[in-house]
Amino acid sequence: MESSSPKKNYPIDSASGPKLILYSYWQSSCAWRVRFALNLKGLSYEYRSVNLAKGEQFTPEFEKLNPLMYVPVLVDGDVVISDSYAILLYLEEKYPCKALLPVDPQLKAINLQTASIVSSSIQPLHMLSLSKYMAQKVGPEDQLSWGQSNIEQGFLAIEKLLKDFADRYATGKEVYLADVFLAPQISVATARFSIDMSKFPTLNRVYETCKALPEFQSSSPEKQPDAM
Ligand SMILES: N[C@@H](CCC(=O)N[C@@H](CS)C(=O)NCC(=O)O)C(=O)O
Predict the structure, then answer these.
(1) DSSP state of 122
(2) For the whole model, what pTM was predicted?
(3) Could you tell me the CA-to-CA distances from 101 to 80, 95, 111 in Å, in that order?
(4) What is the pLDDT of residues 167-207, one digit of tens each?
(5) Looking at ligand 1, which residue's alpha carbon is closest to its atom 4?
(6) Residues near ligand 1 with C-beta < 6 Å?
(7) Ligand 1: residue whose CA is nearest its atom 17
(8) Rounded distance, CA 210 to CA 36, Å?
(9) Per-residue burial over 86-95, b = 16 or more CB atoms within 10 Å of its CB, e = otherwise
(10) Strands, E, within the chain: which ranges?
(11) Is residue 226 helix, strand or coil?
(12) Which residues belong to any copy of the GST N-terminal domain (predicted)?
């Protein structure tokens, strides 16, 4: 595993505690969610690359951190968390600066629901290990259309969910957890799966707003130290 510093350093350390360490891979949308959230919260972190293309997630060293052998993994002193959803809820509790969940219970639930749809009903259906398996079993064309139909189904559900709540961001004028999960997923959907976002005008508007944020830009794959 390579170790390097993020290209952009954010000013705030995790209070006076140990430095946060993020195991990440530049192309991972799950790790991107965490990078985006850390930047929004102004938390600096050490970037440790796990090269998924070279299979570094399968090393015994990494398996000790996450027996599922996926990135991201966040290490905060003695605390090791290995799922982006759990990581973000942890960060929200431990580092409440720049809240990523609104106080209003309904808006909070919509943020959690959006994050859950992305992390449970969209991304797992096109992830690397599944894609490799499908490419062998059904071939690249069916693999692509499988990914596309699942992404579109998930986006349609979120488009309907957010219709009455979205403004510049998914649930209003502030960037929250829903945006943190949506923006990287939309980027993957357009770049890797050629999804036409004009079918999802609300999501497209939210994505355009996120793209203008420096915290999103510096968390993007091509800005990471391990980008190729
Ligand atoms: N639910 C997990 C999913 C993690 C996940 O699927 N990570 C992908 C990258 S986005 C991965 O490490 N894939 C490695 C593989 O498929 O071998 C999360 O949200 O963190």
Answers:
(1) I
(2) 0.92
(3) 22, 12, 7
(4) 999 999 999 999 999 999 999 999 999 999 999 999 999 99
(5) 70
(6) 28-30, 52, 57, 70-72, 83-85, 119, 127-129
(7) 129
(8) 10
(9) ebbbebbeeb
(10) 2-4, 20-24, 45-49, 73-76, 79-81
(11) coil
(12) 18-99
